[in-house]
Model the fold of this input.
Amino acid sequence: MARRTYDIEAIRRDFPILAREVNGHPLVYLDNAATSQRPVQVMAQITRFYRDSNANIHRGVHTLSQEATELYEGVREQVRAFINAPSAREVIFTRNTTESINFVAHAWGRKHLRAGDEVVLSEIEHHSNIVPWQLLRDERGIVLRFIPMLDDGTLDLVAARVLITERTRLLSVTQMSNALGTIVPVKELAALAHARGALVLVDGAQSVPHLPVDVQDLGIDLLAFSAHKMLGPTGVGVLWGRMAVLESMQPFLGGGDMILTVSLERSTWNDIPHRFEAGTPNIGGVVGFGAALNYLSRLGMAAVREHEIELVDYALRRLGDIPGVTLFGPPDARQRGGVVSFDLQDVHPHDLGQVLDGEGIAIRAGHHCAQPVMQRLGLTATARASFYLYNRASEVDALVRGVESATRFFEHARG
Amino acid sequence: MASPEPVLAELYREILLDHYRSPRNRGTLDGRATHRSEGANPLCGDELVLELAVETGRVTEVAFLGRGCAISQASASMMTIYLRDRTAAEALEAVWCFQQLMLSGTALPEEFGDIEALAGVAKFPVRVKCASLAWKTLEQALSSDGVATVSTDEGS
Done:
């Protein structure tokens, strides 16, 4: 069905795990919103680092330390280019998106927010963009407001205009819902927030792996995302921030590498970004992330996006044709990322996931760490298939056969 | 797939699916309950409300409401059948027996009847908490007065 924007079979050969069997069937991996798979190039880069160049960074005068530092800092520049940030110094490595958001809540929020200040979130946020702000609310007495979700899984932008006011200090929203796939018009919301004097933090955990993201074009102030959802290793995340915003923050974690001088009474801070990277980071992981960024850049994020639109459009049509299937989220594939969340009548998502696993198909069943979305839909769980650049139409077909088989299996029980 | 995988047929035994489709003792006791407990596995979306009427130490009535996967709902349905006319002590003993079945596959005494059909769940560690929800909720109901809540999710 799909007009090929790149050679999908060649790509699949870079991901050895896609060739394995699960429960006697070829693996159909459709849980990419949870974590992606990694290509051999990323694994090779990590192995090469530990084999040839391993040392701690920013410390030694010796050759290995300098090599390791160059490799690590080289990836900072790659990240800058990938999101079109003005400066590599604005790129801070963290553990993951969750840590990046908590970072902002601590380093910016605790310094600047006072009782009564408002932070605007949305109803489709992942728990990681809700809980840090609830903790800060309980500590500082800030007020949280939520842009409502409409029935089709998009945000109520009319309500957003009312919710974002002069009292709003920060707008923190996802660019792509992990539970529904909804793409949020971040550029429009950012303009609205800036007009009211608020800063804008974007949760890019789902969007950066799947869409071309240009922080300058979006006009945002802070962006959080994770390497492991975009072909990179686990344990590496990014917080990008405009330099002026980063300069207004207090340190997040204290320790080595983030200081200039330390006496027993006081310390002075190192320059940004090192000020915000206390302790030895995940050097090997960051270096491996560089290979992932290379891989994505070589394909081109626009091509990745086109491929996923075709797959999701096909999946929406095929799944939508199955009696008893309810699809959630925007009906138009161009309004959503590579995520298809659905419910199957009389079959609980967990049971569906179990039946599909028996056929080698990996999906997610549950609340997807977005319980407010589930509550809004009147559900406790959905089944979620999520795609990436290496998935193909035949895997949608396998999913459809699996869903039909689950329907028959549980119907059989009824009769 | 024309027929379900053998491994799935072991998990979803026919009798289990029958209880899922036609749950026994589904409903509420309309204020006659002496014990009530709510259980949930938020991570997978299972919810359960269990009500018991205990008179002179014996379960006279039992009802449950809930939504969730086939395993969690069938387990609750089968448990309610077992509970009728049991003493509270017998019910708590049954909770222990069920936990042993899930943990180590220890066979259940004969009076458990259909509940033995849940033995296959022990081979699916992720689903053990689904099967256990009703039993943990029962334990909670009997070991406290009034309303109690229980979760069998370990994380999140």
Q: What stands out?
A: The interface with chain B takes residues 23, 348-351, 354-355, 358-359, 365-367, 369, 371, 374, 379-381, 401-402, 405, 409-410, 413-414 of chain A (CB under 8 Å).
